[in-house]
Amino acid sequence: MARKKISKKDTPKYNPDAKLPETMTGSTVYNVPFPEDLSDLKKMSPIIVKYPYQIEYIHSYGQDSPFFAALTRKKLLGTRCPGCRYTYATPKYHCMLCGSECDWIELPLAGKIHTFTTCYFGSEAFLEETPFHLILVEFDGVDTLLLARLIGVKEPGDIKIGMKVKAKFRRLCELKPTDVYFVPAVDE
Amino acid sequence: MRDVYMVAGGVSKFKKARPDATFQKMVKEAFDYAMDDVDGLSRDQIDGSVASYFSDHFTRQLMAGIMATDYLGLCPKPNKRVEGGGATGGLCFQAAWEAVASGRMDVCLAFGFETMSHVQTWKGNEFIALASDVNYDYPVGGFYSGYYAMMVNRHMHEFGTKVEQMAMVSVKNHMNALYNPYSQKGGELSIDDVRNAEMVAYPLTLLDICVMSDGAAACILTDEKTAHRLTDRPVRITGVGTGTDAMRMADRPHAEVPLLPHEKKSDYKKLKYPGIHSFRAGRMASIQAYKMAGIKNPLREIDFIELHDAYTSSEIQTYEDLGLCRYGEGGTFVEEGHPFLPGIDYKLPLKNKGTLPVNPSGGLIACGHPVGATGLMQAVFAFWQLQERIGVHFGDDTLQIDGARKGLIHSHAGTGTYVTVSILERGW
Lengths: 188, 428
Known about the structure:
The complex is a heterodimer of chains A (188) and B (428).
Chain A: H1 65-71, E1 77-80, E2 87-88, E3 103-106, E4 110-119, E5 132-138, E6 146-150, E7 164-169, E8 180-184
Chain B: E1 4-11, H1 23-36, E2 48-52, H2 56-59, H3 64-71, E3 79-82, H4 88-101, E4 107-115, H5 121-129, H6 138-141, H7 144-159, H8 163-177, H9 191-196, E5 199-201, E6 204-205, E7 214-223, H10 224-230, E8 235-244, E9 254-255, E10 273-274, H11 280-293, H12 298-301, E11 304-306, H13 312-321, H14 330-335, H15 363-367, H16 371-387, H17 390-394, E12 406-412, E13 418-426
């Protein structure tokens, strides 16, 4: 809304009648007690108010962006150090060991479970998805691991360390690391 | 570098929620308790302070450190905040040590707090999980209990660690906390109680995991001359060590074990280290602290340990990092009874009870874990143990370890990203 233009003439320099507009947006509290004697105030219960706390956050994947672009092409990217050949399943653009700038490489779409868990609770953002299975995947010829979801198993008892898994991709990408997930690469 | 002593400490009662007080007032409670414990120390003798709190999200107040500092009446003297996840308290303790050791201050206050009750538990878990890579880890299902569950599943796979051994840690720490009035939730539990509790992240149940808390703690550190003037029972800080590791568990290398003085290379012929089963930062912190304190064999030389048991599994993993037993033997170490207190009946068959009590206070699992206060709480409990004044402060001396001369405190962040180890000894 455009601001109403106020001419200097209409407004007195000092206005003792100035008043904030009243709104209906404050905390809703009924019957706040207040003692006659101020010394009783130290015994007062705390006043607790609740308000929403939400933001739209702008996050750049920065130098990791190619990993997410590749997910839209059903490819899994890692990085490899051209100097020491250390190979990262979860991309690192600079090598932790020698500091060189790494190159992007395509990872195999099959690996093994290094470890796992099943989450029955979780952070609020993922609570509706519980229970879900998390795994760290190891790939042949790759030095580090990749965190991912595992589906296609029922219970933690069905998941074994060393079990072969293969990557699958969401058709409708969300540009999140969950665009790739894993399923068991074993038959019953 | 000068010798540094601890002369006083205080802790607010750790609770699920403290709606009656803001963080400043909780810090004030801990601070006043510490100040009242030494005659002859007034605020004007304090040269500066270090503030410890972990999460701006929980506090929703930037620069909270200065608000506690002004509430304590310590402006305009130096203050800064240190932060390093779960190890924030341990880092704060060491920052105060640095201030005195360097000669910059003669008296330095380390204070810490966290107010975790301001959001509900699942939102709290989300805030905590932001301490994992937000590009690759957090969006997959960020949940610290899930991360630790993955680590212990690999520990079980490598070494044969059992869930019942983890449950024994929970039984021990909950039972110890029954005698600690500052703790949030002591209890008499059985192994079955722990295993039958609600499953949170397989194999960790609700009773394998610490709880969120509101609380504060304070420690006063001084130089040698001031310490002996203020108290006849000063506690000397004889060793400090700090280790780090990559934020992402996925990035942990598979290399050789950094050895402690009492270990041999042949102990770990086939072990790929640290992988995700062990904490390299904890090992590095131990190596440094033991070297500085002249400790050759921690199991024989240390009288008790307060360590960061955010999970029963991480207590077992930490026995190994600290060299109380070899890597892989942490489960057996607790099963045989070594970390239990000798004078308490845990209703468990324990062959070698009380060799080296671990978490006599009840640890994080039972005391609670108001993150920024936790590492300082450990220092306060260790300080009282060494002064042999547990009975005075707890109103019950069940948890007092007779003749305790040397204690270790251990603070731990992330999935083992920052770890501090500090050695405290009788200084009189």
